[in-house]
């Protein structure tokens, strides 16, 4: 049955096979028929699943008996031809668990080298009863070499093996607890990231530019993660291992009494009375980080502002409204909806959802390049016409796929431009005389769409800033230029007004200049970085506003019950952004890592 890859055989074939063996002990065909029915009634191992069709109650019985048959009869298997065949996967695992030497099977897996064969090698390694030590090491080395693989399945397999090896060797604290004295690596954390992203959840460090770890860092500790991400990893690991034993972050005493034996410059997340904090190998390491941070930015920095309690470092919009009311002006506070979108763009870890404008613009740019390159001379030269049409067709397909990922409204200008291009392509394919006219129309539609993407938010924020200045009888040429859609002139004016004698206009020109960078970003990563810089500039402006308000009416401000809380909130956000931006630019290393505790309670 295994050789023919079937799970059922007819009654006639079953009796014929059984009769051959019963004849050796003096029984006949009728006895074979009775034996088949008795087997079903007494054991339930082999059943008549359909009329005149028999099979094992579960495929595992068939696979186990097949593996035993191979061993008992010393059957030679062409391993190299079979290890990549999923039908034999469980059978070979069961064979390995019973065999006195599984070396030939696992050696064939290594020689085959496919993902399925390597996965079989890893699983057989776990089950192997006897195996040459050299082959055991060869499997580990071969799989470890795949940690940096560009093939997701190979990388996943290598990460799983590394994580399994870690869990087998956790040092004991006592009968109830084990603690890891090494940090979780990027390759292991990537397993969690991949599973989470499949569910629409994102837990990668803010400074990463991709959903996967940077090249060359598979074996290095995962750093720069939020505390709640570290705890989510522990919850995922508990579920992955079956849920009977729990994994968690260490408590403060556990982290200090059993410090990490690697990377002294890192800190591990732990909990103190259900509040997240960082535990350092030495206090001097923490002080070293503080001294480095103070070189990046001149704002006050005290313990806890930027190094721990990550939940409080993420901007709380409800509190932010009150801070904006106090520091920037009521007019801007009424525009917090626009600001909340800016914060979404700045903090998003989903590169395709909140950052859809840059993604859509990228798709339209691809189409625009192809359309603009479609020279009229292509109509004369049939070969050139064919090539140009194929290029445009490919660009249209790519652009349509990208716009679909960007999840824009179907009535947006982007989809209007896409439809115009489709009509132009149809005319070209049908040799329609209107093709040239339709291409020109599609170009115009693309230009309008590319200008429109993401600019609604830019306009909203510019209007809010203009209203603030209007209340102080100050006009804003930059805001006016933005309102008219002339972003190039707006950027030039912003650069000029940085030299204005009025410090308010100076600060606003810097703010608007960074806002305009958001409008001109051409990639997802450029847009995210531009929004982060813009939001950081907002928080800096707010802090300046607090300082100036304190000078004018310090007593009144201090009498407000939530004044200190709001200012600290803005200061925390400012530092959090400065840290993320510095890490993104490669100017600052991350230090927040994960160590785990296995709890048998």
From TrEMBL:
Family matches, as InterPro entries: CTDL_fold, SUMF_dom, SUMF_sf
Pfam families recorded: FGE-sulfatase
Sulfatase-modifying factor enzyme-like domain residues: 178-255
SUPFAM superfamilies documented for this protein: C-type lectin-like
Protein name: Signal transduction protein with Nacht domain protein
Species: Candidatus Thiomargarita nelsonii
């Amino acid at each position: 049955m295994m050789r023919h890859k079937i799970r059922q055989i007819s009654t006639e074939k079953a009796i014929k096979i059984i009769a051959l063996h019963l004849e050796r002990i003096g029984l006949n065909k009728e006895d074979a028929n009775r034996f088949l029915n008795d087997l079903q009634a007494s054991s339930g191992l082999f059943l008549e699943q359909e009329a005149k069709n028999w099979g094992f109650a579960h495929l595992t019985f068939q696979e186990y008996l097949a593996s035993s048959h191979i061993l008992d009869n010393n059957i030679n298997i062409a391993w190299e031809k079979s290890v990549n065949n999923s039908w034999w996967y469980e059978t070979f695992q069961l064979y390995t668990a019973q065999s006195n030497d599984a070396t030939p099977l696992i050696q064939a897996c290594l020689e085959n080298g496919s993902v399925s064969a390597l996965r079989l090698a890893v699983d057989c390694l776990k089950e192997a009863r006897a195996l040459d030590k050299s082959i055991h090491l060869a499997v580990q080395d071969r799989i470890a070499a795949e940690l940096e693989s560009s093939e997701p399945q190979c990388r996943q397999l290598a990460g799983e093996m590394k994580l399994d090896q870690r869990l087998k060797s956790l040092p004991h604290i006592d009968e109830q607890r084990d603690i890891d004295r090494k940090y979780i690596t990027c390759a292991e954390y990537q397993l969690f990231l991949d599973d989470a992203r499949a569910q629409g959840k994102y837990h990668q460090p803010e400074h990463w530019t991709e959903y996967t770890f940077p090249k060359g860092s598979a074996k290095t500790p995962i750093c720069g993660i939020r505390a709640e991400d570290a705890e989510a990893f522990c919850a995922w690991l508990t579920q992955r291992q079956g849920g009977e034993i729990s994994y968690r972050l260490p408590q403060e005493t556990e982290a200090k009494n059993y410090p990490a034996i690697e990377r002294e410059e890192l800190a591990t997340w732990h909990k103190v009375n259900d509040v997240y904090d960082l535990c350092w190998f030495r206090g001097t390491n923490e002080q070293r980080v503080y001294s480095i941070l103070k070189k990046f930015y001149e704002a006050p920095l005290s313990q806890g502002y930027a190094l721990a309690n990550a939940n409080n470092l993420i901007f709380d919009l409800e509190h932010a409204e009150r801070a904006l009311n106090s520091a920037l002006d009521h007019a801007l506070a009424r525009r917090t909806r626009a600001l909340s979108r800016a914060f979404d763009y700045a903090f998003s870890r989903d590169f395709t959802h909140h950052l859809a404008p840059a993604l859509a613009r990228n798709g339209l740019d691809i189409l625009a390049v192809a359309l603009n390159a479609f020279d009229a001379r292509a109509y004369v030269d049939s070969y050139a016409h064919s090539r140009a049409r194929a290029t445009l067709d490919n660009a249209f397909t790519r652009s349509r796929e990208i716009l679909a990922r960007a999840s824009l409204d179907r009535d947006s200008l982007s989809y209007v431009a896409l439809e115009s291009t489709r009509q132009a392509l149809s005319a070209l394919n049908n040799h329609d005389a209107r093709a040239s006219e339709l291409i020109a129309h599609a170009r115009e539609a693309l230009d309008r769409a590319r200008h429109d993407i993401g600019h609604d938010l830019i306009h909203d924020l510019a209007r809010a800033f203009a209203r603030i200045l209007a209340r102080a009888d100050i006009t804003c040429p930059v805001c006016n230029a933005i309102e008219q859609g002339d972003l190039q002139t707006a950027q030039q004016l912003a650069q000029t007004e940085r030299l204005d004698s009025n410090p308010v206009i100076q600060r606003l020109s810097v703010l608007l200049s960074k806002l305009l960078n958001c409008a001109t970003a051409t990639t997802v990563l450029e847009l995210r970085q531009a929004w982060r810089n813009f939001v950081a500039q907002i928080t800096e402006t707010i802090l300046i506003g607090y300082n100036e308000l304190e000078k004018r009416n310090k007593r009144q401000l201090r009498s407000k019950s939530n004044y200190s809380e709001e200012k600290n909130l803005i200061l925390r956000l400012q530092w959090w952004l400065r840290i993320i931006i510095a890490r993104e630019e490669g100017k600052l290393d991350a230090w927040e890592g994960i160590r785990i505790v296995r709890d048998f309670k």
